[in-house]
Amino acid sequence: MHTILVGIDGSESADRATEFAATLAKACGAKLALVCVAAVDSRLTLDAGFKAMLESERITLGEFLENEARMTLEKAKPRAEKIRGGSVATVVRLGDAAEAIIALAPEYDDPLIVVGRRGRGQLAGLLLGSVSQKLTTHVPCPVIVVP
Length: 147
Fold this sequence. Notes:
This protein is of the alpha/beta class. It has helices spanning about 10-30, 50-55, 60-85, 95-105, 120-130, 130-140; strands at about 5, 30-40, 90-95, 110-115, 145.
């Protein structure tokens, strides 16, 4: 493994995945990249106040979500760099989290993907699917799901 990709979303589960991946990257001498996907869902209904804020700031919903993803990465990056003992890359994508990470993996030589396990119940996971479930099923490289 040359690069460890960590899917993060600002949750406690993602924090644990980041710590695990940074420790593993340090032990293996691997590069580390934190990945945050801003999920743009066409079914999302925005309230009038939020729409007005976007219009006043002259940004799209996608730009707003991308900025939020960048802030999430900037929050996690120093901790990951401290644990790893070196620089950490950051990657922002838009779209479905699992699909974006699946599409990103082939851009790296011999990647390993690390994600946290979400706190959803089994029924919700079966009905909605989860990022970790989709990744373990569809990505063509090893995946570690951190509890």
